[in-house]
Amino acid sequence: MTHTAARSRRALHQLTTTVRERLQEAVRRPDRGDISITTVIIWVAAVTGAVLIAGTIAVVIAKYNGKLGGL
Description:
Elements lengths: L1 H27 L8 H27 L1 H4 L3
């Protein structure tokens, strides 16, 4: 239990330090060239579309697996 508590404390300290450093950097350089919301929307749509296509292919293959076995 002591090891878990020590690891948790280190992880929390690292996270806090990282967040603090990033906030200081954002204050120092406000325009860092962050990606736009449009780019994020396009990426989410692309990934969602790819997952849907892959899922559809998997369902079709699972449905017709027995019939495709003799080809």
